[in-house]
Amino acid sequence: QVQLVESGGGLAQPGGSLRLSCAASGFTFSVYAMSWVRQAPGKGLEWVSGIYSDGSSTYYAGSVKGRFTISRDNAKNTLYLQMKSLKPEDTATYYCARVRSADLREYDYWGQGTQVTISS
Hints:
Layout: E1 3-7, E2 10-12, E3 18-25, E4 34-39, E5 45-51, E6 58-60, E7 68-73, E8 78-83, E9 92-99, E10 107-110, E11 114-118
Parallel strand pairs: 2-11
Antiparallel strand pairs: 1-3, 3-8, 4-5, 4-9, 5-6, 7-8, 9-10, 9-11
């Protein structure tokens, strides 16, 4: 069965960095686009970034562009999100999601999430 397991979250100070990972299993990771989405406390799900299957094309929400970098290692079935210059408003639960169509905002599976808290 499809499994997506996020890790790497935690507490960081404003201006700091974190690197999230998502280990994928149960499907052919290399043929699927993947996305990161997040949900802040009391808010809806927000798409953060997406990457197509071969990693050649990446896309970002305006709120994170220039600060976050999405990447993938198809040999390791792993998706990454490097986050820098973190802000308190980046506090959220971050999920990796398998994209089900050409639209990076349409998902069919996602993981259990990893909590990111940005606070001094």
